[in-house]
Amino acid sequence: MRGVTQARPQAAGRARRFACAAAVALAATGCGGGGNGGGGGDGTGILSSSWGDPQNPLEPANTNEVQGGKVLDMIFRGLKRYDPETGEAKNMLAEKIESDDSQNFTVTVKKGWKFSNGEPVTAKSFVDAWNYGAHLDNAQKNAYFFEYIEGYDEVHPEEGDPSAKTLSGLKVTGGQTFTVKLNQKFSTWPETLGYNAFAPLPKAFFDDHDAWVKKPVGNGPYQVESYQKGSVMKLRKWEDYKGPDKARNGGVDLKVYTDNNAAYTDLLSGNLDLADDIPAAQLKNVESDLGDRYINEPAGIIQTLAFPFYDKGWGEGKEKLRQGISRAIDREKITEQIYHGTRTPASDWTSPVLGEKGGYQAGICGEFCDYDPKAAKKLIDEAGGLPGGRMTLTSNVDTGSHRVWLDAACNSINNALGKDKACTVNPVGTFADYRNQIGDERMTGPFRAGWQMDYPLIQNFLQPLYYTNASSNDGKWSNKEFDKLVDEANAERDTEKAVRKFQDAEKVLAEQMPAIPLWYQNGSAGFSERLTDVKLNPFSVPVYDQIKVG
Amino acid sequence: MGRYVIRRLLQMIPVFIGSTFLIFIMVYALGDPVAALFGDRAPDPATAARIRAELYLDQPLWKQYLHYMGQIFRGDFGTAFNGQPVLDLMVTAFPITIRLTLIAVVIEMIIGIVLGVVSGLRRGRSVDTTLLFLTLIVISVPTFVTGYLLQFLFGVKWGIVRPSVSTDATFGELLLPGVVLALVSLAYVTRLTRTSIVENVRGDYVRTARAKGLPRRRVIVRHLLRNSLIPVVTFIGTDIGALMGGAIVTERIFNIHGVGFQLYQGILRNNAPTVVGFVTVLVIVFLLANLIVDLLYAVLDPRIRYA
């Protein structure tokens, strides 16, 4: 008997992997849902939206993933805000940010803004928040955002205890003004200020931190009405909000789903108004299910295959091998058949959300990102073949349908080489394990490197990933010319020239191919018939304040 | 009897310590959870070290375990990564899963035993064959298929119930997931009861009871069924533990925020306090269910005595 009962959970665990396939078959019959609730277009209707359990407490400098970001985006407004459509950084609370030398900035905060508990937003609200975020004792995961501010090394040393309480580069000079001194020239620094980590914090945050985390208080168009951790957060329109982007609905209920298939089913049956992140298995039939209530828009995410430069087989002098692998992958087919247009083949190392002006330029990668199995084989042969005659592709496979595209990419490479088992997949069960293996430099072949931008700047797609010893340079690639071009670009005060310098740096990537651009990722969402004006911003978060209900 | 129970309870202590230790090692072997907290970005070493120290992860394994056990005996199950005490998670998750399990067990007990008796008494007839065939199908179809199928039919197509369960997770809402969860066990209970009945129906005591002129109903319920239930009770007892821990699939399909949900999140995030805490409670549930099963033997069969 025991044998029977104990075998079952295991089988069920294995079965889960195939669960999506079943769901496809079921939903294929389709069924346009759509509930009917109150609202009536007068701006008081409340919508429900899918949510994931945030990984960290909801402090602005401690939230580094989309689910927590959704909430911060609703309850906070910073000095700058990225335009939901163009991604351009526009002044929000900032009256003006001035600098003569790209290193010393004077920030003036607009008057009249308040937190939803009545406290005014002042220069101090920002300075205190940033000091809190940067200080090592608070162990904030976004602390590195403040690393360009002078004094960061004292409040956040790499080893040992901090020797200062506050950042020496931050000074409150008046009720609404403060100065920032950076430790290097960084002309586009003000444009990074739209990120949530730079949000202001009310006194209540410091006075009673526990209470604040249970029910965060911000200065955005919504306020938190109730928060049941792990299941639902109810946000309601803040009537006294003075900003230009007042909520056009009465509020949002964020409901936690463990499985986006469940959210999708709820959407179809009319129990949910907005589901973002449509499950890959449903993409085939999403258009027949939802019609024009399905949106699919570019997001600032790119997937690449990085190479381990600490491994002799792939590192120095092997650029032809790396370019050859790139040419052997049929991006068109994979994005179309697996992702049904929610990914588009990449031909540079940035993202279309930057726009031409921001530095996105299709085709910088040139022929090396074009699929050509013959040329690929030639390049790989010229480089002396695969190291040891075989290779593995590594990625975590717990999310994002990674397993599927890994198999497809391997097939594509095998076909190009005319060998059956030259490329195999090395799946890693959990993201945590995968990150640890990368951190320990245990990769022996190309591995997946995803990048979601922090802010829509070309700098953010290049420097953290490919600069020598940068925080996300997982392959440990290093190139003097690239570093020099990035430094020059950062010092350049004219934005247009700076962007061009960054693009020059990208050309070095094409020659050296330290990482193969695979595809740009889109954000996707479906919504019920009650909603109109649903959009996703470049961070693939729905623009909640613009949604109309009824 | 009393001494037997005490002895069994004492035996649970080494089992409890051993299993928590094994689970602790297994979660530990999954690796360092801190790196994953930083997403695709390599964590800055200083912050990572602080977080490790906060979570007691910078200590050697045996110290971590002792620290953890010390906490448990003070009624503190540690803190999940999102800053919530694991005890809070348990307080919300366990009642939901217990409700779900209760529904499933009641369904499999009542329907399973009735079907088993009917089938066993009509051995070889068409009712018996049909039931055997149906249970075979139910056993061979995995839970996620029946789950998605019933969810689609009842929730989306016919719109009789909500396809997902709200945060309150009332008995009414849990009925459909309960049926899904119960189905496979239900089939086993039916088959077990049937086999047992078939064996015992020819027993001497049944013939004696009939010869005494007892009414048929009394023969079946008091004599035949009572003796046939021992294997079934064993199965249901151990199944309670399996249902509570094994509801992960069902809970995911219906978006129920119970034990399975928390375990899944905990494993995905390498969150040792959550996983070890929940599994520890499940181990206790399993041990207690087994003890109750053993005690029930004596009730069902007076020949069995514990001393």
TrEMBL record, chain A:
Source superkingdom: Bacteria
Lineage: Bacteria, Bacillati, Actinomycetota, Actinomycetes, Kitasatosporales
Source organism of the structure: Streptomyces lycii
Region (Disordered): 42-64
Pfam families reported in the protein's UniProt record: SBP_bac_5 (PF00496)
Name the record gives this protein: ABC transporter substrate-binding protein
Residue ranges constituting the Solute-binding protein family domain according to the UniProt record: 90-472
Matching SUPFAM superfamilies: Periplasmic binding protein-like II (SSF53850)
InterPro entries from the UniProt entry: Peptide/Ni-bd, SBP_5, SBP_5_dom
From TrEMBL, chain B:
Database matches in CDD domains: TM_PBP2 (cd06261)
UniProt entry tagged with the keyword Transferase: no
Superkingdom to which the source organism belongs: Bacteria
Keywords for the protein's UniProt record, in alphabetical order: Cell membrane, Membrane, Transmembrane, Transmembrane helix, Transport
Annotated localization: Cell membrane
Transmembrane region(s): 12-31, 96-118, 130-154, 174-192, 224-249, 275-300
InterPro entries assigned to the protein according to its UniProt record, in alphabetical order: BPD_transp_1_N, MetI-like, MetI-like_sf
Main location: membrane
Keyword Transmembrane helix: yes
Residue span, ABC transmembrane type-1 domain: 94-297
Signal peptide extent: none
Protein name per its UniProtKB record: ABC transporter permease
